[in-house]
Amino acid sequence: MTVDDTTSGAGAQPPSDSSSGAAASSGSASGSSPGSPSADSSAESSNGSAGPSESADSSGPSGSSGSSGAAASSSSVHPTPHHEVDHTAEPTDDPLAIRLEQLILGADRRYTPFQAARTAGVSMDLASRFWRAMGFADIGQAKALTEADVLALRRLAGLVEAGLLSEPMAVQVARSTGQTTARLAEWQIDSFLEGLTEPPEPGMTRTEVTYPLVELLLPELEEFLVYVWRRQLAAATGRVVQAADDEEMVDRRLAVGFADLVGFTRLTRRLEEEELGELVEAFETTSADLVAAHGGRLIKTLGDEVLYAADDAGTAAEIALRLIETMTHDETMPALRVGIAFGTVTTRMGDVFGTTVNLASRLTSIAPKDAVLVDGAFAEGLVRTGDAPASEAEAAEEAAAAEKEGEEPPLYRFALQPMWQRPVRGLGVVEPWLLSRRTNS
User: Fold this and answer.
1) C-alpha distances in angstroms, 379 versus 129, 223, 341, 430?
2) pLDDT band for position 426 (50/70/90)?
């Protein structure tokens, strides 16, 4: 469904939790009747796309004259924050936009948000929480929803009713799915379709090319999306079930690495916008490919910085050094620095949090150009697995002993050099180690 862009940063479908005769937001009654009066309740918002809670007008959803009064009453009790969305926004009536919407959704507009919630057998309160979590902006009571919206509500609510998900978990599922797919959709439209909709003949507009192109691509992209999601889900499930105990399934021990472009702020002042965009895209693409190829997981990209994780120190170390080596050989890239820490992290919605992540970030900020700094726990992990010697003196002794016995000396992948101790903001005094690739001679 196409939405007035002024109402939603995500540009997604914009269901509202207000009834046609009331200015109710997600403060609708928590009971089974979506149109019953309600007391104020807090609303969940996603990416600033949803407004605050308001009290429903006592006349219920069937009334039409009580809307302005309820809104005024609610505003007097609950001051409107500066980020509240426009609840009067209507979906676009552009004919081509509607045709594209029907093509993509596979259904016509049939329901207002209240009607969709009632048809799905879901309270207005819960429906609005799901919609907001998915990033859909409010549209008042415009008839803009389809059978697919009703089915989605039934499925989520059914998972809660069956006891498979708690209500907060169902909202989290909606939020994580909405945020991920919103970014994917924006990327595909901005970068993918834009390049493919160049008019093939003079006189044709880009708009005229879009419909048949979407019609051809939609089923293929849908199948591909499901395939990739299943693959990623299988991999993630496998990692979790291999955890040592139940506690580690939630709070896991991982190697976390940050890779940061040096002097990026100065580059933003020197490069044209298009050049800067190309540099960032090249950096993110190269980093993502290297992380995936060597067994890590890309957590997120932040323009001039990438965050990745790996199950063991050896994998994280290999990725870090590959990143440095690859960027060093690319004359268009600025210098890179990497910081890695190993320890317990909390994972939520695909992201990682905790002291280990903070330490990795701090190590990155103090790392020399084209170098990798790691913490003590990470260094111990490399030594424990035989990927690095405890010291070069120990490695020399082992080599001498092996030579005396006529045996091959141990082969190490990495070298560790202790650096100076220094205080790190918020984390006390740490002793970083400089990581490098070791040449065994």
Assistant:
1) 45, 43, 9, 13
2) confident
Residue 360 near residue 366, CB atoms below 8 Å: no
Query: What pLDDT, on a 0 to 100 scale, did the predictor assign at position 382?
Result: 95
Contact (Cβ atoms closer than 8 angstroms) between residue 189 and residue 196: no
Task: Note the Cα 83 to chain centre separation in Å.
Answer: 22
Banded model confidence at residue 186, pLDDT cuts 50, 70, 90: confident
216 burial type by CB count under 10 A (0-12 exposed, 13-18 middle, 19+ buried): exposed
How buried is 200 (Cβ within 10 angstroms: 0-12 exposed, 13-18 middle, 19+ buried)? exposed
Query: Model pTM?
Result: 0.57
The region that residue 42 occupies, defined by phi over 0 for left and psi between -120 and 50 for alpha, beta otherwise, is beta
Length of the chain: 441
Tell me the per-residue pLDDT of 194-248, one tens digit each, with 9 for 90 and over: 666 666 667 777 777 778 888 888 888 889 999 988 998 888 787 677 655 555 5
CA–CA separation, 83 and 52 (whole Å) = 9
Contact 134, 176 (CB under 8 A): no
Buried-state track 308-346, b at ≥16 Cβ within 10 A, e below 16: bbbbbbbbbbbbbbbbbeebeeeeebbebbbbbbbbebe
Mean pLDDT for all residues in the chain? 76
Cα distance between residue 90 and residue 3, in whole Å = 7
Nearest residue to 25 via CA among 80, 65, 92: 80
Structure tokens at 182: 């919103």
Bridge partners of 10, per DSSP, are none
Q: What is the pLDDT of residue 195?
A: 66
Using DSSP's 3-state secondary structure scheme, residue 210 falls into helix
* Residue among 369, 359, 371 at smallest CA distance from 256: 359
Neighbours of 152 (CB within 10 A): 19
Q: Collect all residues with Cβ–Cβ distance below 8 Å to 330 and sequence separation of at least 6.
A: 282, 286
With vertex at residue 331, the alpha carbon angle to CA 328 and CA 438, rounded to the nearest 5 degrees, is 15
Q: Of the candidates 337, 344, 142, which has an alpha carbon nearest to the alpha carbon of residue 248?
A: 344
For residue 121, the number of C-alpha atoms closer than 13 Å in the C-beta half-sphere is 8
